Amino acid sequence: xxxxxxxxxxxxxxxxxxxxxxxxxxxxxxxxxxxxxxxxxxxxxxxxxxxxxxxxxxxxxxxxxxxxxxxxxxxxxxxxxxxxxxxxxxxxxxxxxxxxxxxxxxxxxxxxxxxxxxxxxxxxxxxxxxxxxxxxxxxxxxxxxxxxxxxxxxxxxxxxxxxxxxxxxxxxxxxxxxxxxxxxxxxxxxxxxxxxxxxxxxxxxxxxxxxxxxxxxx
Amino acid sequence: xxxxxxxxxxxxxxxxxxxxxxxxxxxxxxxxxxxxxxxxxxxxxxxxxxxxxxxxxxxxxxxxxxxxxxxxxxxxxxxxxxxxxxxxxxxxxxxxxxxxxxxxxxxxxxxxxxxxxxxxxxxxxxxxxxxxxxxxxxxxxxxxxxxxxxxxxxxxxxxxxxxxxxxxxxxxxxxxxxxxxxxxxxxxxxxxxxxxxxxxxxxxxxxxxxxxxxxxxxxxxxxxxxxxxxxxxxxxxxxxxxx
Lengths: 218, 243
Prior knowledge:
Oligomer: heterodimer
Helix content of chain B: 25-40%
CATH architecture of chain A: Orthogonal Bundle
Distance between the termini of chain B: 39 Å
Number of strands of chain B: 10
Order of helices and strands of chain A: HHHHHHHH
Strand content of chain B: 15-25%
Shape of chain A: elongated
CATH topology of chain B: Rossmann fold
Shape of chain B: globular
Largest interface: A-B, 20 and 24 residues
């Protein structure tokens, strides 16, 4: 039976967007923790730690998100961890996010002038104190615009997990299309919902960038 | 007993030997002006004194500490040896008062209210009692440099190092910084400064040290050194500086 594309279908799509948002949130939260660890490891004083972090970023960035997803969904279940699809999806997206956020944040940490390290070291601060009170607060301002920009990519990339039958926005669009055979209205609605999520983030990224440039110039 | 002892200090950057066996002693309360052309090693010498540069050989003792690059002894040394830089290096995300309070709170474990009071005192000392809550980008270069001096003084150091602290300032702003330094010298602070301010070196410093080619070429009281240079290099140097 072919259904019509009506208000209840639209509501279904909007409700599915909650999973998109949840996936983005989980991936961003865990990816941020991992990313911070990777960024700090990348600027560590021990060469072995730096090399490990560099390798991690290279590997994560060199693998399609889809393969990370297959690895955590099929691979981990084969290894005995029977993870619900949403968890496997979150893990793979978090790993993907950690690889990129680690890279962005390492750059931000390193763009804090070396004189800030020297001045704070000369004031007898420990290295953790230097990071906490002098380096990271400045790195955050530098990193904020590209980080928000990356979140836009993350929102869009959550659509990939539709493949392991997590009914998020993209998968919901497919389901509705299969029932209605009205691809244009269905996927234009899906696109519009993605846009409504992503566009404010893009705007925020741009205005943060302008604010940061003003701060630098002043 | 001298408060600074430098003995046969050598330091290279790659193939370039910058310090070729420098020896120097400084007594408590002395104000030592390090003079010389750029590349003569004077800034490197200064930066070796608080461990910002590691040395290749030789010995440094300063404010009762033997130079030791392990983190903990190095921090103990740096509590007693303040440094002020050419480019101020204030923390741009903190106010003037917060810049001054940071190290007393974290390194000296002074509680926030007491640290705030200390910051008020130190900023008043450099004539910036009204700028406590200003951010560095709201201050002139001279004001920023005075905040940097207050930030170092808040640690109550025994020795202060000044690395070309007026070189990045417009001429009309150097005076306010030099006045603060002269007051500090009059208070009895032991100071070593790399400077191009010949007036300051002659009138405020108790000792002038002329560096040339990675070595101390000539040193002594400024009055006699400037009146009767013993080496042609120093004579030429002051000749150029006065032009």
